[in-house]
């Protein structure tokens, strides 16, 4: 029993050393801690409590596997864009007045799409965070222009603070840009791990989304996917 406890603790420590202190490593560490606790509760003779704890842990792990599978299914989205008029790039934070690495990857995917689909307009969506000098949308627009995208194709949505607002406010802007009363199909450009939830929210807003995913480095994808698990569950129950 002691050996197993030490082994699990070593695994948690190795994960922390390899991947650093992050949401993902903390989550895995908590799960390993719960397993250790359940084993000790069983060892001390509290069989019913140990079974309940074990069932809870297994249920949680199974739900993580199911949701992670759905996230991975949408992660490689590269849908057809012939019928699409508008693309929406979802914000992902700034570093000063520069786009973050995650946001740069999303914008680079947007540039590829815009270069091969000359009919598309793009909505860059993201407001100004506390202490920031410019909005995410402004920084995104600057980056696109610096890479050769015409300002005439860029529409700024610069008041949103989360994914729900990104899509809701972008929907309102697009509605003003079109002549008919029906909403067109939109292309959501976001990170691979984020695509599932983005499409879920878009459908809740009565949008018809297709997706274009930007790739996330494997070394950080696990962390983001674990964080996204809880966000997806929240979106499902809300």
Which consecutive residue ranges, at least 5 long each, have pLDDT under 50?
none
DSSP helical segment count? 8
Q: Profile the largest sheet.
A: 5 strands, parallel
Q: Rough shape?
A: elongated
Tell me, what is the CATH class of the largest domain?
Alpha Beta
CATH superfamily of the largest domain: HUPs
Strand content: 5-15%
Mean pLDDT: 85
Number of extended strands:
7
Radius of gyration: 21 Å
CA(first)-CA(last) distance = 41 Å
Return the structural class: alpha/beta
Number of domains: 2
Secondary structure: helix percent:
55-70%
What series of H and E elements makes up the topology?
HHHEEEHEHEHEHEH
Produce a short descriptive summary.
The protein is of the alpha/beta class.
Structure characterization notes:
The chain is of the alpha/beta class and 238 residues long. It is built from eight helices and seven strands, in the order H-H-H-E-E-E-H-E-H-E-H-E-H-E-H. The protein folds into two domains: 2-75, no CATH class; 86-237, HUPs (Rossmann fold). The chain has helices spanning 2-19, 23-43, 47-75, 101-116, 136-146, 163-177, 195-204, 218-237, and strands at residues 86-90, 94-95, 98-99, 121-125, 154-157, 185-191, 208-214. The strands form two sheets. A five-stranded parallel beta sheet has the order 5-4-1-6-7. A two-stranded antiparallel ribbon has the order 2-3. The radius of gyration is 21 Å and the shape is elongated.
